[in-house]
UniProtKB/TrEMBL annotation:
One Gene Ontology term from the biological process aspect of the record: epigenetic regulation of gene expression
Keyword Metal-binding: yes
UniProt record similarity statement: Belongs to the histone deacetylase family.
Name the record gives this protein: Histone deacetylase domain-containing protein
């Protein structure tokens, strides 16, 4: 299996996050990626595919905001990471406001996704990592590849950041595959959290079906998306599937959900699969509440591989850093 990793992804070092009303150390640390790299062994660096494939998914105003927000924050005399504190509630007027705090509200879904001096560079190279890992699949020289992306992407929408995510790496790769001739590209999301950004991006489209298994959003982040009745609209009606599981789910509870998700993916008859993989379903994850064990990931990998589709595995969450390398290696070896 080809793996892609780019060291520029380590420039993003969020300092802290707002948690239960106070500050705690940020869970999405640079060592996540380096420990996975150590476990998978060889990886090639990302090739620069430029901004076009990013703009094919993300609003140009949002991309400019992301690129410049930290410099503007510093120019406003602020220290540390840029972070919003006021948000436009649904159905407020679409005002064009240039104050950094207003723009942070306009383009953010939450306050756990800070923008530091290195954030744009890392997010950019994470997107390039996904695009680089896609190339051999489109070229027919590989059946499976692994994009070791950091920061993760699946909570980022076309014009918003959130959930530790800035650019939606999986969506950018799926759209790039469509633009280069893949007929239908399915996205299967096995992160512990619902991939709300990916769902939003493809909500009205039938050409990129989205299937996700995640913790019930009535109980967990991102709360406002990912409920079982959300199925897509317009040309995308029926092309979104949300399978929700309770806290405490172990492999015995996960298996039937995965079988259902795999059947849904198969029903869409895709030409290519993008797999948003999070290892935050692990029993020892410090911020999540499922109970998969390291050995279980090999089973999940084998089940996904049995679809027989060209597959791009895109790294999403997973915060038990000490076990993260072993969990990801177990999943990839299952292929
Ligand atoms: N106390 C991914 O796994 N949790 N993102 C906020 C605040 C946010 C996780 C908890 C979790 C986001 C890619
Ligand atoms: Zn997650």
């Amino acid at each position: 299996m080809i793996s892609v990793f780019d060291p520029r992804q380590s420039a993003h070092r969020p300092l802290r996050e707002f948690h239960n009303g106070g500050w705690s150390d940020h869970a999405e640390v640079p060592s996540r990626a380096t420990t996975i790299l150590g476990a998978v062994g060889d990886a090639v660096p990302a090739a620069d595919h430029g901004l076009d494939p990013i703009h094919a998914v993300h609003d140009p105003g949002y991309v400019t905001f992301l690129r410049t927000a930290h410099a503007r924050w510093a120019a406003a005399g602020r220290e540390g990471d840029a972070i919003g504190y006021v948000w436009p509630v649904v159905r407020r007027r679409a005002l064009t406001l240039s104050r950094i705090d207003a723009e942070l509200g306009r383009y953010s879904a939450d306050a756990v996704t800070p923008i530091g001096a290195g954030t744009w560079d890392s997010a950019y190279w994470a997107a390039q990592t996904a695009l680089t890992a896609l190339d051999p699949l489109l070229g027919g020289t590989a059946r499976t590849s692994f994009a070791l992306c950091r920061p993760p992407g699946h909570h980022a929408g076309a014009d918003y950041l959130g959930g530790y995510c800035y650019l939606n790496n999986a969506a950018i790769a799926a759209q790039a595959a469509r633009d280069q001739g893949a007929g239908r590209v399915a996205i299967l999301d096995l992160d512990y959290h619902h991939g709300n950004g990916t769902q939003d991006i493809f909500w009205t489209r039938g050409d990129v079906p989205f299937v996700s298994i995640h913790a019930d959003p009535a109980q967990d982040f991102p709360f406002f998306w990912g409920h079982a009745d959300e199925a897509g609209e317009d040309a995308g009606a029926g092309a979104t599937r949300n399978i929700v599981l309770p806290h405490g789910t172990d492999i015995a509870g996960y298996r039937p959900a995965l079988a259902q998700a795999i059947a849904a993916v198969r029903g869409f008859a895709p030409d290519l699969l993008v797999l948003s993989f999070g290892a935050d379903t692990f029993a020892g994850d410090p911020i999540c509440h499922f109970a998969l064990e390291t050995g279980d990931y090999a089973e999940l990998g084998a089940i996904v591989a049995a679809l027989g589709l060209p597959t791009l595995v895109v790294m999403e969450g997973g915060y038990a850093v000490d076990a993260l390398g072993a969990n990801v290696a177990s999943f990839l070896n299952g292929f």
